[in-house]
Amino acid sequence: MATTDIFGAIANPTRRQILEMLRDGPRAAGEIAASFAANRPAISEHLQVLRLAGLVSEEARGRQRVYHLNAQALGALAQWLHPFEQYWGQRLDALTEALDKDK
């Protein structure tokens, strides 16, 4: 069923869109679901995957479920990606240098 792997969770474009929505603040499950063409059970499943991966937390407010972004989990992802950012930064610097030599 759902994965607890952060990379598996963010591999899906719908889940990435949900995370982007939650950047602006907490949102009710119904509000999130209304933003997509998919049915509510499908969005609920995406929210569960994000919750199991630790990327979002769920809060009960009466009959509503409100979801919050868990930025700490994204921090672990950013740490893993950092060496790749350095690699591409170095490659782009080398490209710029090579292009400047041709001028």
From TrEMBL:
UniProt xrefs under Gene3D superfamilies: Winged helix-like DNA-binding domain superfamily/Winged helix DNA-binding domain
Keywords noted in UniProt: DNA-binding, Transcription, Transcription regulation
SMART domains in UniProt: HTH_ARSR (SM00418)
Residue span, HTH arsR-type domain: 1-89
Xref: InterPro entries: ArsR-like_HTH, HTH_ArsR_DNA-bd_dom, HTH_MetalResp_TranReg, WH-like_DNA-bd_sf, WH_DNA-bd_sf
The UniProt record lists the keyword Transcription regulation: yes
Entry-linked PROSITE patterns: HTH_ARSR_2
The keyword Amino-acid biosynthesis belongs to this UniProt entry's keyword annotation: no
GO MF entry, a single one: DNA binding
Protein's recorded name: DNA-binding transcriptional ArsR family regulator
